[in-house]
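fyi for ur records
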Amino acid sequence: MTATERPPRPPRGPDERTPPKSARRRSRELAMQGLYQWLLSKEDAGAIEAHLVATSPNFDKADREHFEELLHGSIREIDALHAQIEPHLDRRVAELSPVEHATLLVGAFELTRHLEIPYRVVINEAVELAKTFGGTDGYKYINGVLDKVAVRARPTEIRPR
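which gave:
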């Protein structure tokens, strides 16, 4: 081995494959799952929240306040969020998959209501949700739509392209 080569890294154990999820990321996942359930069933948001609290492993590791705000806020403000999203869709909202729809709602809510979170973080987190729960290339669609929402929702933070 030469001085510029690095020694091979030992194989990772099962616990080292992925870094632990942040409390915020876990809250986004749970909110997206709750919105997915709500979009399909129109069940009461409180019942959906109670179900997620009771059945989700490691719920205690999520940022509960952020989860509640994302879930209940997205449902409460769905019309305003749709108004932010719809101009950038290539189809009607009703034609979105429930995973895409729920992910766009979470992302649009954070872009419009959580200005303390940088827009790039919001978009990246939504893309990660889509990669985890969505179809093969759904994350690309989420990225494109939320990027356009960000231009309108955060004009002082992002310059239009």
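Confidence is low (pLDDT under 50) at residues 10-16. thats all i got for now
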